[in-house]
């Protein structure tokens, strides 16, 4: 979606808060982080759906509320949409009905999450799952898309030309994962853009910006 | 240690109440096991973090064959050190040289290589960093105190898909006699994101 989260290149945010080195400053931020991880198993939702829920916050809220409060609000949104909690329950913290957890059954215990965290997610598919449409060195142009759902092609590269720097292989497609449409596996590429092609003559003459872009975002230039 | 040092900030209290209600409700509904929440926090705070990345960098500085492997197949070379998991399933390591300086960002959210760097610091998630480092990296790096020669090519890596990036910083001069542990102590988080030189 063309939302406030798509910040690359925007003006007006001032200096970078370089001294803000901390990860957590409050205990509730730790709990919010862990809740998002744990709820993903049982609500359930995937990382792309959680990212998209954060993107769907009102722009003013996105800019002003704490990062880990956004994570919690996204969980609340996804729980309501999955039908496992009501708005009233989320406001009070008091249960009024038992959700049907279906095949997910009971939540993972400490030993289970401990075993899975070092393994991570399966994001990639065998190379023969899809033929690549582009080759390294080829010039490509990012499509002019205005996807109302989740997408990972930032505005600042749309309609811009770059060069395929690396074929990363076949990955699940974030746009489809966020819609709950399954993985739609396809090649993903690292694409190199000249800074001046993105930002004009004032940009670094030799600077480059690299993005990882799924095949569905690209056309031959 | 956790420390709630803000005095009665109503926004902060609202967020704390919201998260407490979310946890209580989720436990009551059987959606989460509180012991699993503790295990998640403990895992990311104790077993991930910049010291993992520093160990990778120190080994690459000490062992040319490992450095080559790391640059060619970051995922496998980092897994060889035992650093794997969510937000690090697919890793690429980019090397700083005399000619090239690399810096990492996620303009769309906060993607960051958790197994080797832990969770991102607040500045990495800030609107100013995300908005500006792709457009004016040299000015942003100067705010971190890093002034690069005009001749240095700056490469910005925007983590828009499933690859997570780690910068291999340049080895500081005068460190030839140091072993890997002593080298790792010189490596900072910002050095591995590309907002500092070592």
Automatic annotation (TrEMBL), chain A:
SUPFAM superfamilies linked: Electron transport accessory proteins
Pfam families: NHase_beta_C (PF02211), NHase_beta_N (PF21006)
Reaction equations catalysed: an aliphatic primary amide = an aliphatic nitrile + H2O
Single GO MF descriptor: nitrile hydratase activity
Ranges for domain Nitrile hydratase beta subunit: 129-219
Keywords per UniProt: Lyase
Enzyme class: lyase
Assigned EC number: 4.2.1.84
Residues in Nitrile hydratase beta subunit-like N-terminal domain copies: 1-100
Entry's family note: Belongs to the nitrile hydratase subunit beta family.
Job description of the protein: NHase catalyzes the hydration of various nitrile compounds to the corresponding amides.
Protein name per its UniProtKB record: Nitrile hydratase subunit beta
Species in which this protein is naturally found: Roseovarius spongiae
Gene: nthB
From TrEMBL, chain B:
Keyword field contains Zinc: no
Protein name (record): nitrile hydratase
Gene that encodes the chain: nthA
A Pfam family this chain is assigned to: NHase_alpha
EC number: 4.2.1.84
Family: Belongs to the nitrile hydratase subunit alpha family.
NCBIfam families listed in its UniProt record: nitrile_alph (TIGR01323)
Alphabetical keyword list: Iron, Lyase, Metal-binding
Originating organism: Roseovarius spongiae
InterPro entries documented for this protein: CN_Hdrase_a/SCN_Hdrase_g_sf, CN_Hdrtase_a/SCN_Hdrlase_g, CN_Hdrtase_asu/SCN_Hdrlase_gsu, Nitrile_hydratase_asu
Source species taxonomy: Bacteria, Pseudomonadati, Pseudomonadota, Alphaproteobacteria, Rhodobacterales
Binding site for Fe(3+): 106, 109-111
Catalysis performed (reactions): an aliphatic primary amide = an aliphatic nitrile + H2O
Entry keyword annotation includes Metal-binding: yes
Gene Ontology MF, one: nitrile hydratase activity
